[in-house]
Amino acid sequence: MEKTMRDFWWHSRGDKRVHWVAWKKMCRPLAEEGMGFRDLKAFNIALLAKQGWRVITQPTSLLSQVLKAKYFPRCSFWEATVGSHPSLTWRGILLARGVLRVGSEEQTTPENLGGVTVIWKPSNKGLFSISSAYEVAVELDARGTASSSRPFPFLAEGCENFWQQMWALVVPPRVRVQAWRFCYEAIPTMDNIAKRHQGVETHCVLCGAVEIIKHVLWECHFARMVWALSNIPRGQLDVWTEGTAEWISDIIHKLDRKDGSRFVTICWALWMNRNKKRMEGIDQTPLTVVKDASDLLFHYQEVRTKIKLGIRV
After folding, report:
1. In angstroms, what CA-CA distances link 19 with 5, 9, 35, 176?
2. Integer angstrom CA distances of residue 284 from 5, 43, 202, 232
């Protein structure tokens, strides 16, 4: 299932399967550098944890009694082993036991002085939920993988604020997603393609220089003319910092929401212009690129406003 989702997202066909960003990173929440996709493995463990929670909290239920009699008649659920010839249900519950161990806690409450009540710590009310179990499963998986480290160390302290700012920009979804891909440098520039395939020309189709993301968005003479024609304050664009993500985050931080939206839309338009020239041989002027970006942004925001006001579009 996840393979199908990955291929669909990256438009993979046949043997042309370049997945520019690891799936684990894409499953992170939007505010944590990801795309918010659901990690199906973690979700499955959360569903299994729900069955285990029932065994813990409903010991008199038929399921609990059957499992206890067969797999842990002389010990607690926490000490139980797989046993001989285990069922798929039991193996699944044990697979999710780590999530339950982290999330559950035994407490003695005034209403239950004679015994112990098990509460679910991730919930304010102490009640188990699949969504909170999913978060625990994702966290446990991240602890055991190298991908848990953040790809943008310079954003570590204010990372959440930056991503919240970017996702809050009033731009079409395709522009927002493209900005995310720029941050990960997950786009098929000729330099990126050459790193994966030998014998690929790396020149920019507009000027002949080596085509990297920095060149497409900033260094190319065509991009320079586009930015000069935009209404974005020139002083905010003069410095390209270390990486693409740092550059984008720095500019979005400096600009207000309106100019930030215009900025990422022009970045998108520059990439679209590159594709039209390379794939279709279409030449556009810098003024046309700026106008295309402005028109896209205007029409999107106009439709969005009408929908909010209840006007039929």
Report:
1. 11, 9, 14, 19
2. 34, 47, 21, 21
Q: What is the pLDDT of residues 4-32, one digit of tens each?
A: 666 666 665 555 566 767 777 777 777 66
Residues 204, 179 share a domain: yes
Most confident of 21-30, 121-130, 137-146: 121-130
Q: 277 in a domain, yes or no?
A: yes
Least confident residue range of 48-52, 161-165, 220-224: 161-165
Gap between the Cα atoms of 147 and 57, Å rounded: 34
- Number of structural domains the chain divides into: 3
pTM score > 0.90 for this model? no
CA atoms within 13 A on the CB side of 69: 7
Residue 118 contacts residue 77 (beta carbons within 8 Å):
no
Question: Residue 45: which residues within 8 A CB-CB, separation 6 or more?
Answer: 95, 96, 99, 133, 137
Whether residue 199 sits in one domain with residue 174:
yes
d(CA 263, CA 161): 18
Whether residues 184 and 96 fall in one domain: no
Evaluate the CA torsion angle 309, 30, 237, 295 in order and state its sign: negative
Parent domain of 17? 2-37
Helices (H), 144-189: 159-167, 173-184
Query: Would you place residue 33 in the very low, low, confident or very high pLDDT band (cuts 50, 70, 90)?
Result: low
Question: Does residue 85 share a domain with residue 24?
Answer: no
